[in-house]
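Hi U.,

Before I forget, here's the chain from the pilot set. I'm dumping it here mostly so it's searchable later in email.
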Amino acid sequence: MERHTVPPIRTGALTLLIALTAVCLAVLAVLSFTTAQADLSLAEKSLERFSQDAALENEGQQWLARLDAALAAGQDSAALGQTGEDGIITVTLTGEEGRTLTIAALPTPQGPGRYTLTRWQYGQQRDFDTGPQLWDGSF
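Structure:
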């Protein structure tokens, strides 16, 4: 009877490969978790901003309804906002966290509508002095 000798399995390289794979998977898991957290934070900030814009939009539509009613009744619309030299009535509505909506409407005596919108612009009031201070390059 012949004896067959089976060489022993060398586990050194295989163990190293498995350990390296486990480390790579752990790093990818941490990166995925970090990215998911950043996406959630950005989504929450976007939702907050869209909510503020929706509130300003509602307030702006209510202002337009008051302007339309005043123009339909023939009342003076100067009380609804600032009237410029060209007759454009402008109002700036301020919401939460410095969000603004500037609306400008030009009353039209003839035509199907009572006014023409010339401006509907969202903005953000910021104070750049209170933010994080960046390095100015000095030592």
